[in-house]
Amino acid sequence: MPPGPVPVGMRVSPSALEWGRIPSWEWHLAGVDPGRARTVASAVRVAPGLQRTIDRGRGGPAVTAALRTVRGIGVWTAAEIVQRAHGDPDTVSVGDYHLPALVGWALIGKPVDDDGMLELLEPWRGHRHRVMRLIESSGFAKPRFGPRASRVSHRGH
């Protein structure tokens, strides 16, 4: 529980110790594949070191490099972490399936790849993540070209 009086519905994330206590079948029931569950377990084991990355500032190459030393944390995950946990206004989520096309459609009216997205966002260096969040929160949507894919079950039924 958070300290003091709190608004109804407010939640606090579990501690690393609590994350480490989640049994494998609960991850499975929650739809989390084994690879992602292993990544969480790896991060839990080095949680104090990850917490110290806050001392390195709002993000950037030194922080993302430190985060990427954890097995399962790649460039995309490290970017997502520094955006949220460090408040990094600039790090771009390279390797995201949807973001390059969204940025491309929003800024030049056609899809682009990661390199094209980085080129388009270059004028806003220092605030590229903020620009991406503004695009996402604006309500803009890229064109859809077909039905949505169905979810894949990993339960083996």
Task: Walk me through the structure.
With 157 residues, the chain is mainly α. Among the domains are: 70 residues, no CATH class; 39 residues, no CATH class. Helix 5 packs across helix 6 and helix 7 packs across helix 8. Helix content is 48%, strand content 0%. The termini are far apart.
The largest sheet is: none
Tally of DSSP helical segments: 9
Shape, principal axes of CA atoms: globular
Total strands: 0
Strand portion, in percent?
under 5%
- Oligomerization category of the chains in this entry: single chain
Radius of gyration, taken over Cα atoms and rounded to an integer in Å: 18 Å
**Uncertain residue ranges:** none
Structural class: mainly alpha
Portion in helices: 40-55%
List the helices and strands in order: HHHHHHHHH
Our measurement of the CA-to-CA distance between the termini, rounded to an integer number of angstroms, reads 38 Å
Mean pLDDT score: 89
